[in-house]
Every structure is written in structure tokens, then in C-alpha cells.
Amino acid sequence: MSIIRAKELVHEYIRRDDEGNIEGIEVALDHVNLNVELGQFISVLGHNGSGKSTFAKHINALLTPSEGTLFVDGMNTSDDEFTFAVRQTAGMVFQNPDNQIIASVVDEDVAFGPENIGVPTDEIIKRVEKSLKMVGMYKYKSHSPNKLSGGQKQRVAIAGVMAMEPKCIILDEPTAMLDPDGRKDVLQAVHTLNKEKGITVILITHYMEEVVDSDYVFVMEKGKVCMEGKPREIFKDVEALKSHSLDVPQVTLLAYELRKAGLPLPECILTRKELVAALKDLRVANASAAALAKPVKQAVKAKATADNVLILDHVSYKYSPDTAYEIKALDDVSLSIKEGEFIGIIGHTGSGKSTLVQHLNGLIKATEGGIYYRGQDIYDNDYDIKDLRTQVGMVFQYPEHQLFETTVFKDVQFGPKNQGLDEKEQIKRAYEALGLVGLPQDLYLASPFELSGGQKRRAAIAGVIAMKPAVLILDEPTAGLDPKGRDDILGLISDMHKKRGDTVILVSHSMEDVANYVDRIIVMDGGKPAFDGTPKEVFAHYKELESMGLAAPQVTYVMNDLKEEGFAVDVDVTTVEEAKQEILSVIN
Q1: Among residues 203, 218, 240, which one ends one of the domains?
Q2: Residue 177's closest CA among 203, 201, 205, 199?
Q3: CA-closest candidate to residue 438, choices 397, 491, 479, 398
């Protein structure tokens, strides 16, 4: 039985000028035909701007078709009389939790949906407790959502939809702001609802490993469904997915690279277990052959000692001090950050990552301790905080929080204008920055609020880059970006770092991104650094990281699995290329 059926579904966005005249029409959905059966777990993939979120909003009747029809549980979403029933049937979890959290206390917010649809009070209490426990937020039930981190808010938003127990849940990038443990918990909770309650799940995601256990996958491109099939059918075509700005789970990519290098592995491997089993079979087949000599690893040259650009001296910070909501977000943190370092900051949701970086340009003032920028105390009465913020630039978790001008170009130009640069230099820097982040020129004069989530992220980064700061802080810069966009942005930041030698601080929940790009990782736990070292040094402690709600890159686990099976491999591997070379060196 179909719960969602799209027939020739078209959606057009009309752009108007200040006088209300039509400037252009953007086709976001272009004659989409698809069918979702009741109880299925469906994943929808696609690059930023491919039409995924627009399609999701149609399922929830937030948008209605320009042409064609969409039926939800037999109801035509174009028919106004079904709007409330459609939204009751298909619950929506948005990309940004701030868009759907309304109450001042967590458990009241989760209760709001069930109350609205007439669930009895006793049942509401049970549902709220169960939903909050499923997403790991029960201990925060009496907290104000405003005091929670972005990832914690997202869990509350998901719990709010879960508590309504709709026939269908649509999740639009629900785990973009969550730590690895949070992602695992939320996906597990959603899978449990799917299996035990028979709730249909539509998951929109850029995390390919989240797709592996889906029943079926749709891939969107330019408003059309360009690929569909079971996960193994979709992920076997790595090059086709790359052409659509997507990628595959890291373990699938490793197996694909090993196949290209000549190892006779099965065509599409989706899990660590499958890869280890296939390599064990190869080892048995090759047992009589001589093992290849392992290459000698080159010693990594130590960087020349640089001066400290930022020093934190016994910094502590409390939210809502001396109240019932007091939270110690930073606890006696002492750190030094050197000129030219590329640092990754990781930690579970609520560990203090964002609070820490917001101290570095004076957005938050420490409750205790001192912060020094190039030897100067930023808390001195005569210190120019405004100047500090042009030197230490920050791209926030949510780009819409720092976009405000009427056009993208004016928004990017604003920073240089605020620095007192002449108009010619402002325009030059805006063009350079927009070119660097790869935003198409036809969007330069668009409103920043018309952009997709990923495009907003690029515009926000361009606005900070245009000021040419000495320290660039990026708080979850790839959340909401498709895989190609993620690689483009991080590649761009990495290239700029190498060319200009500026200091980069990357806050991320993606262990793979951190492993691929940074030189040093600081692990935050309980408001203080738990580990501080190179990626290899930090991810060697993957079991301790797991106890903190984190993880290591997938390939690190693969190497440890192989070691346990008797393979003579080094386990301090953090990237696909390193894993590939290590495996090839022990299997001929």
C-alpha cells in the first residue's frame, strides 16, 4: 500500500524584484514520479539545490505542487481540506532545529505536538518520556531549549515529532549537527520506530553510511529522480555518484580503491564486516604466496616552532551563573594556538566546542581566566575588540545567523566595508571571496535568504574570507553541505591555509574530515581538553573517544578489525589512502 505517491510533480519558485515584478522562475521539482510503500525506510540523496528539501516540504504540505499531484496516505496535498490531516500523518524534522522549537522547557516542547492532535494527557507523558530517552535527552527534560547546543536542540526536535507517532516521519538532514554517538542514537531510534511501529521513514542525508540500512534509495539531480534502487545497487556505481556530487560510505570507497588496485574483492562492499570477511578469504587464497614487503614509512618532519597567536590561560565559563540553569561549559582550559596551525576541535554535543571558539574573538567573555591575542590581553580596558573580530574571523554553525543584506554580494562586501576599506577594494575582495567558495555568479544579486542551506554556508564563509582574517574559525562549516560541497569547502580552506599560512580552527563532528585535513586535534569533553595531538595520536585512543560519544574514522576501525583477525597491519591509519596502502602491503 502506498503512503506517498508523486505523479508528474512540479514545483516552481518565482523570484520577484522589489516592486513585485517576476524576475525569473526556478524549477525545483521537474516532473517527479515516485512511490513509497507504507512501512518502508527510504533515503533521499542529492547535492545542495537538487530538490530534496523542496520534495520533503511537499510531503508535509508546507508546499503545494505547481503542476502534478502528490498523495500522502491517499490525500491530495493540493486540497486545502486535507492540510491538517497530511501534517498529522507526515511529521517533519527540519535541518535547523530552531525552526521548530517553540516552548521554553524541553518536555513542554516535545509535548506540544501530541497535545495539538488531541492525545490524552497520560499518554502524552509516556510518549514524551519515551521519545526523550530514545534520543538521549531525558536528563535535559526540565532545561530551556535556548541553553542547549545545536546538536541537543536537534535531538529535542526529533523527539517532538517522534512523540506524535505519525504514520510517516520526514527527516531533512536530521543529524547534520550531531556528534557520532548522537547520530548513531538518533538513527537507531528512527529505525526502531520504523521496525516496531511500522512508521514510514523518509531520510534526507549527506552521510552515506546512514543510507546503508535503508530499504530503498532515491537520488535527485536538478529536480528529477536520476537514480533509484537498493543501497547496494546505488553504491556500486561510485563514479556515477561522484558525477552527482555525492560519495559512498568510507568502507565502500576503500574496497573500491582496493579493487582498482587489483584485489579481487566483491563489487559493492557496504560494511566493515563484509570487507574484513572478503580480505580474510583473499588471505586464505594467497596463503602459499610470499607476502609483499611493507614499505618503510617516511618520518613526518616536525614543523618549525611558531609563535603563539592565541593563548587561553585557565579559562572557565558558566552559562546562567547562580541560577537553577547554571551550566559550566568551560572548566579551567589552558591552551596555546600557534601561528599557521590547522587545528580540529572535536567533542560530543554539549562538550564546550562552540563555547570555546566563541571566546577566541571576544563574542563570549570568560567567567574566569584570560585570553591573549599575539601577546595582548583581550580583556584590557583599552583593547579594541572590534579589531580583534576582523583578525579572528568566525563562520557560525548556522549561516543564516550572519547573513542579513539584501543581496549575497552586499553581504560579502559588508565585512571589508566595516573595516574601512575603499569601495574598489571592497568590491575586489567580495568578487575574490565569492569566486573562492564557488558560488555561481547568477546568485551574486540574489537575496541570501533565497539560497539553499549549502549555498548559505558558502556565502557566510565568503563574507568572513573577504576580511582576510589571520585566524579563521569554522564552526561545523560542512553541516548541510553535499559531499562535493564539503570537499570543495574544506579543500578551499586547506589550500588557502597552505598558501597564506594563516591559522585555521575547524570545529567538526565528522571524524573523517578532521583526519583528512588538520595537523592537530583538540578533543573537548566536559568543558576541558581530554586529548591534544596529531590525528594519529588522538584516533589511537578510539575506545576512549567512544566513551565520550565520539568515534574514529571508519578506516581506523577496519584496520583494528584486521589486526584482530591476525593481519600484520599498522592500526594508526586515519585516511582511505593510508588504509589502501597498508592493506596492499600485506596482501599480494
Answers
A1: 240
A2: 205
A3: 491
Mark 27-62 as b/e (b = at least 16 C-beta within 10 Å).
ebbbebebebeebbbbbbbbbbbbbbbbbbbbbbbb
The string of pLDDT tens digits covering residues 53-98 is: 999 999 999 999 999 999 999 999 999 999 989 988 999 988 778 8
Q: Please state the rounded mean pLDDT for residues 16-40.
A: 86
Q: What is the pLDDT of residue 22?
A: 77
- pTM, rounded to two decimals: 0.83
pLDDT of 286 reads 65
Residue 382 CB neighbour total at 10 angstroms: 5
CA distance linking residue 451 with residue 456, whole number of Å: 6
Residue type, 144: S
Could you give the CA distance from residue 383 to residue 398 in angstroms, rounded to a whole number?
A: 28
Report d(CA 486, CA 206) in Å as an integer: 10
End-to-end CA distance of the chain: 51
pLDDT tens track for 505-541: 999 988 999 999 999 999 999 999 999 999 999 999 9
> In which residue are the cell numbers 618549525 written?
304
Identify whether 326 is part of a domain: no
Q: Mean pLDDT, to the nearest integer, of 431-448?
A: 90
Residue with cell 602491503: 585
For residue 254, what are the CA distances in angstroms to 235, 542, 578? Answer: 12, 20, 10
Per-residue model confidence as pLDDT tens digits over 274-291: 999 999 988 776 653 333
Q: Taking Cα atoms as reference points, which of 14, 10, 9, 8 lies closest to residue 26?
A: 14
Reduced to 3 states (helix: H, G, I; strand: E, B; else coil), residue 72 is strand
Mean pLDDT of 31-53: 93
Q: How many CB atoms lie within 10 A of CB 500?
A: 13
Give me the pLDDT at residue 306, please: 62
For residue 384, give the C-alpha cell.
579594541
Report the domain count for the chain: 3
Structural domain boundaries, residue 478: 340-369+379-552
In whole angstroms, what is the distance from residue 416 CA to residue 358 CA?
21
Residue 518 CB contacts under 8 Å (≥ 6 apart), including other chains: 342, 343, 344, 506, 535
Average pLDDT, the chain: 89
CATH number of the domain within which 166 lies: 3.40.50.300
Q: What is the 3 state secondary structure string of 112-178?
A: HHHHHCCCCHHHHHHHHHHHHHHCCCHHHCCCCHHHCCHHHHHHHHHHHHHCCCCCEEEEECCCCCC
Taking every pair of Cα atoms in the chain, the longest distance, rounded to a whole number of angstroms, is 79
Question: Domain check: are 60 and 26 in the same one?
Answer: yes
- The number of CA neighbours under 13 Å toward the Cβ of 70 is 31
Decide if 296 is inside a domain.
no
- Of 573, 458, 559, nearest to 511 by C-alpha is 573
For residue 296, pLDDT over 70 is answered with no
How many Cα atoms within 13 Å fall on the side-chain side of residue 78? 11
Q: Is residue 206 part of a domain?
A: yes
69 and 80 in a single domain? The answer is yes
What's the DSSP call for residue 399? G
* 467 and 560 part of one domain: no
Report the pLDDT value the prediction gives residue 292, as an integer from 0 to 100: 36
C-alpha cell at 326: 547554571
pLDDT reported for residue 295: 41
